[in-house]
């Protein structure tokens, strides 16, 4: 009886100390976790070393579009998680979907995977090169269960390109870059339309109940957490579709934003409110099922916001798809009980490629010597406030992007052709060449009137022929003062660094579209269309035809 009483006392103490804290009373369609009034931790007392890793990637969230950056859009969950974790305030991603996702999953710059240009289009026979080892593959080597929910956008023309072939035990989500949030249909061009919701390697018709994707993905995450043993490490990659266009959201999320006149901004706000609630419910599920105390939650946007689609990067310059700060500087934070400096701000340089080595090291994995990574292990930088091992970032070199008309080798001091679109950061300095993209600042007032209105933008005009810009980003994060004429020596140094990086670049992979990709030829579904057997048959036929020709020519010769 005495032993039983002691055990009962310990059990009560465990409940009091390990029970989850209330994360607000908001519960709803964004994937509610069933209630757990006792806050029980199913894994309490279990031996733990390898942390559970939950990586949440938002889509097209603008730098300003989070409460703690001054947004009018309410994001109480993100604000709370960030405030209790470490805010990354010198954190960079790539300006578009595919590039950021490829660098996250490989730890390599685009120039080292061949994905330097644009994104992977639905009709292109292209995907993340198969010779690249991925983050989930490395985590599986050390015992992790790996699951992906959400948007893939790293190519699917061959079955070998699918998420389940690239290291994930399970996949539930979309293969393309965008699509309808309810029907999950996507048209790439007139007449080229198809269904895009998958479970593992097959179309998920049975799981499609017309549920808004943010809510549907959250429910799937809850199911995965409920069925997995929290004593075993899990890697959960949640790549939400929100807040990418098309701008759609359930009606009740518009409640607080009816005063926003700009319809795109209002819809965007509702989408972000739904996303914030979904992340609240993911956090509740982590606590309920016993993962939270040994978890690392990483939150990141994949690129800057698109003002014409409701996003705001103010006070940064530029937007999604550009190499100005508004396209590449992202909302990001880490939340974890394992952090040493909780409630802090990290202003050290961090890039999306850094997650690959950082997470593998935390998982007690090994990074092969022959894998030439561009990322760094930045856990001590984030957790303990130490200096970042990173001193530079190659934002990109795109040799096939539209060349700047007035760019030349002469403008690049004979070191670099400034017609080429490129951008690099070294310590405090940032250099851009070629055509960096849409470069206006879009203040909050731009969203005050209905419809897209560029008259509220701070329009930029500079002397004709300019193809080089230099900024001290630490002193001038908004890129207001171009210093290229004042510091030609710094320009030359950065151009040399660009040239050095370019020598290590692999050829660009950007093939023309393949008519066999049409979903009409694949049961109305976007999916793998390239079959290795067909290629072998064709090559065998051609070999046979060639051998016949050779035998005929031999007969003629004889």
UniProtKB/TrEMBL annotation:
Tell me the protein's name.
Answer: ARSJ Arylsulfatase
* Pfam families associated with the record: Sulfatase
Q: Which UniProt keywords apply?
A: Calcium, Glycoprotein, Hydrolase, Metal-binding, Signal
Task: Look up and give the organism this protein is from.
Answer: Climacteris rufus
Q: Which residues form the signal peptide?
A: 1-24
Q: Output compositional bias ranges, type Basic and acidic residues.
A: 530-543
Which segments constitute the Sulfatase N-terminal domain?
51-363
Q: Residue spans with biased composition (Basic residues)?
A: 546-558
Keyword Cell membrane listed: no
- What lineage does the source organism belong to? Eukaryota, Metazoa, Chordata, Craniata, Vertebrata
Positions of region (Disordered): 506-558
Molecular function via GO: metal ion binding; sulfuric ester hydrolase activity
Cofactor(s) for this protein?
A: Ca(2+)
Record's InterPro entries? Alkaline_phosphatase_core_sf, ARSB, Sulfatase_CS, Sulfatase_N
Q: Which Gene3D superfamilies match?
A: 3.30.1120.10, Alkaline Phosphatase, subunit A
Family recorded in the similarity comment: Belongs to the sulfatase family.
